[in-house]
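queue> pop job 88
queue> type: inverse folding (structure -> sequence)
queue> payload:
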């Protein structure tokens, strides 16, 4: 059963900003690393770069003539420098950089921008020359919060929580999408009129054009079309309103977009890359640098026949992150932007770059003359370093190859919390895992096991290999972590082979052990059930191991116990998954087209197929979800599953004996919409043993179902059918994630504090005292800080990605 603080590691929908943001991959070359802090996100502008650390702080470096580093000065920085304090709640989930402007998406969905304001691109309604420190958030149109941002040359755009898009700043080419190029727009206006279905999952701002990835996977572009960068088949000047979607190569839908200076690239569903617009320098990767292309052509030939998980288009260069964690670049080689050590232009994708330490990349961001990538736990950059934009502490011209990781100063706060049966674990921003609660099966990973209660956190004995966790997940009494190199380690109870070490014994595993996965050997998501485990591999394949008594391993037969991860299961079309969740004896996966398939035990209708039946031993055809019919995430409890739909609604199915779905009867056999408190939509859902919690789009938490141990946080012990009441959280009163366990619940607040409630019988609330079931409301704030582990995600088409350095998902520029 998956009990993780929302926003899992496996999936990313990518929306790069003009300056090189891409979903799922950041570029490498000179490197900026966070030794004390891990980089969660990076973006590259004209001549500066910024990163969000794992604790939500923002660091910038490079050219600073307009105050775009947000440090209160106009002094250039040749190494990462912490910005002046962000406005409340003081933490960012994403950053986007433009020509000489920077915007940050805060953890509460607010947006703040700084740097040059000559065109009103800061969105504050009263343009000034420059703003050198992060100001108060701008006023966005209703519903007033954003889930993604992108900054172009002199304008910016945001995707709002309802999927609408608003753009502001310079409008010389109609890039604001308001129907008529006009004077500068100095504050975010009413949303643009997108073509059907009218909502987007991502927006990418180029030099003077914009592209949006719609919720059905189609792409529409508007603004400057001088070089065919809008992809409409006719380079015919400006387009001032979003037109009908363009025609993409088969299969006709995309999972990531990047608008560059004068060209555009997308990752198609399935992982192919196609680019159109200006071919100068070979930026399209199609073998020519002379002829612009005004409609999406056949995909480029990626090295080794690889698939891409992210793409980033700069001005005259492009980079893609491949499904094995490699980076391939093409286009203009000047300033060593291709990362091969050469300054020659390259009009077809390069061989995989040599990244520092041989670590895999998860995202890449291409700017005007430099590139940065998220590599392992750090950042590596290359290209032009005249203004210190490589971030390695000097400004000595070019870096010809990916640099060593760059340091971000700071502490080592926690980044994720996961509540399970009788214990809790956290992941620190530096990759250390800490656990507390009972340790009778070695689930604390300390090398010992005892029946004692440990009510305060202790660090693991150590992870194998790179030793740094990017995600942690817990089952009944076993725990697994995906490390920063996408390898897997597990520990705890192993009576049915759920650890996956191939030992063939039932002895507990008291310290983390490396698990050998099928090719390519790396994972992007994990789901842990009672006595089995599943992983989404890099590339989207799924493998499950452990107890198979109900067909939950999905291998088309009941095979008893499988002690090591076997060959991948056969998924329904498109054959790849982005997310995985495991319940007591069943599993569900979100496919890369947003559909959901479930298999295993169906005694309570938890497979969602409309008719409880005998066990289903292989992933069947997808279930029918309520409109819009696609999901961005799925979670599973004992015998209940819930999906977060692409429009933010929540649908659940399976057991409802404690009110965890609503209505009457003991079970629901098809996905049924849950009546959430106002506004009725959520950013995330977490399913516990018999209760469910959701993070609403107001950043409030609501829980429903079994309340016997105070798990609902409403001050009582009775069951509650949806809509549950909104939990009265302490402190700031709003949250960025929630994790429902067996009989306790924890939430991360928007200021980074943590509060837990429910049973404390085994010390799982982490408050230093064992209080039984006495905590029926959110506790006083724990003495630990957590970085936001959630980012709103409306994409039904997110591909599996190597790892999510944000610990959530989504795009590098927000």
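queue> result:
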């Amino acid at each position: 059963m998956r009990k993780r603080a929302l926003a899992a590691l496996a999936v990313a929908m990518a929306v790069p900003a003009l300056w090189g943001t891409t979903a799922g991959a950041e570029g490498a070359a000179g490197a900026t690393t966070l030794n004390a802090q891990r980089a969660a996100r990076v973006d590259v502008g004209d001549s500066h770069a910024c990163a969000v650390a794992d604790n939500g702080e923002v660091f910038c470096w490079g050219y600073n003539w307009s105050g775009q580093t947000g440090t209160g000065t106009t002094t250039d920085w040749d190494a990462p420098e912490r910005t002046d304090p962000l406005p409340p709640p003081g933490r960012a989930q994403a950053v986007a950089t433009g020509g000489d402007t920077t915007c940050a998406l805060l953890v509460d969905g607010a947006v703040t921008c700084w740097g040059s304001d000559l065109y009103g691109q800061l969105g504050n309604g009263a343009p000034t020359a420059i703003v050198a420190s992060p100001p108060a958030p701008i006023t966005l149109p209703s519903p007033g919060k954003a889930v993604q941002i992108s900054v172009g040359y002199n304008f910016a755009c945001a995707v709002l929580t309802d999927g609408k898009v608003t753009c502001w700043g310079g409008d010389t080419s109609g890039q604001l999408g308001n129907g008529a190029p006009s004077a500068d727009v100095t504050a975010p206006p009413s949303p643009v009129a997108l073509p059907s279905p009218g909502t987007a999952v991502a927006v990418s701002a180029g030099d003077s054009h914009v592209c949006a990835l719609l919720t059905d996977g189609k792409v529409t572009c508007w603004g400057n079309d001088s070089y065919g960068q809008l992809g409409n088949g006719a380079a015919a000047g400006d387009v001032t309103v979003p037109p009908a979607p363009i025609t993409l190569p088969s299969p006709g839908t995309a999972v990531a977009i990047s608008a560059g200076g004068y060209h555009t690239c997308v990752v198609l569903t399935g992982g192919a890359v196609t680019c159109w617009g200006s071919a100068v320098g070979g930026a399209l990767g199609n073998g020519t640098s002379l002829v612009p292309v005004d409609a999406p052509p056949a995909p480029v030939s990626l090295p080794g026949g690889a698939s891409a998980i992210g793409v980033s288009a700069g001005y005259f260069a492009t980079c893609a992150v491949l499904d094995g964690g490699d980076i391939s670049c093409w286009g203009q080689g000047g300033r060593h932007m291709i990362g091969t050590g050469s300054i020659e232009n390259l009009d077809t994708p390069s061989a995989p770059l040599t990244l520092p330490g041989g670590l895999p990349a998860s995202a890449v961001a291409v700017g005007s003359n430099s590139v940065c990538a998220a590599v392992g736990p750090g950042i590596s950059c290359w290209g032009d370093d005249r203004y210190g934009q490589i971030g390695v502490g000097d400004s000595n011209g070019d870096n010809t190859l990916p640099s060593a990781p760059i340091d971000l100063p700071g502490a080592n706060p926690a980044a994720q919390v996961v509540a399970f049966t009788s214990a809790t674990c956290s992941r620190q921003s530096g990759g250390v895992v800490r656990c507390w609660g009972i340790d009778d099966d070695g689930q604390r990973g300390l090398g010992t096991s005892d029946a004692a209660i440990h009510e305060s956190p202790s660090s693991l004995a150590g992870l194998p290999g790179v030793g740094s966790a990017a995600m942690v997940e817990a089952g009944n009494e076993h725990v697994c972590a995906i490390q920063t190199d996408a390898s897997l380690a597990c520990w705890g109870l192993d009576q049915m082979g759920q650890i996956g070490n191939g030992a063939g014994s039932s002895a507990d595993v008291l310290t983390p052990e490396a698990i050998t996965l099928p090719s390519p050997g790396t994972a992007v998501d994990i789901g842990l059930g009672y006595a089995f485990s599943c992983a989404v591999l890099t590339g989207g394949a799924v493998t499950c191991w452990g107890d198979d008594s109900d067909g939950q391993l999905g291998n088309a037969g009941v095979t008893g116990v499988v002690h090591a991860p076997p060959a991948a299961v056969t998924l329904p079309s498109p054959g790849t998954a982005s997310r995985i969740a495991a319940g007591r004896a069943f599993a569900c996966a979100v496919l890369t087209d947003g559909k959901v398939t479930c298999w295993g035990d169906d005694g309570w209708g938890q497979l969602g197929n409309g008719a409880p039946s005998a066990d289903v031993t292989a992933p069947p055809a997808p279930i029918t979800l309520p409109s819009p019919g696609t999901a961005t995430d799925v979670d599973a409890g004992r015998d209940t599953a819930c999906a977060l739909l692409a429009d933010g609604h929540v649908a659940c199915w399976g057991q409802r004996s404690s009110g965890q779905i609503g209505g009457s009867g003991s079970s629901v056999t098809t996905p049924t919409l849950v009546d959430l408190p106002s506004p009725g939509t959520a950013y995330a859902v977490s399913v516990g043993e018999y209760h469910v919690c959701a993070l609403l789009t107001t950043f409030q938490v609501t829980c429903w179902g079994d309340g016997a141990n105070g798990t609902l946080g409403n001050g009582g012990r009775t069951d509650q059918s949806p809509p549950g009441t909104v939990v009265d959280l302490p402190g700031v009163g709003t949250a960025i994630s929630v994790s429902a366990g067996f009989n306790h619940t924890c939430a991360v607040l928007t200021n980074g504090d943590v509060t837990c409630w429910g049973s404390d019988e085994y010390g799982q609330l982490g408050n230093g005292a064992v209080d039984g079931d006495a905590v029926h409301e959110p506790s006083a704030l724990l003495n630990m800080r957590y970085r936001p582990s959630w980012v709103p995600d409306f994409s039904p088409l997110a591909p599996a990605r190597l790892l999510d350095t944000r610990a959530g998902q989504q795009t590098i520029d927000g």
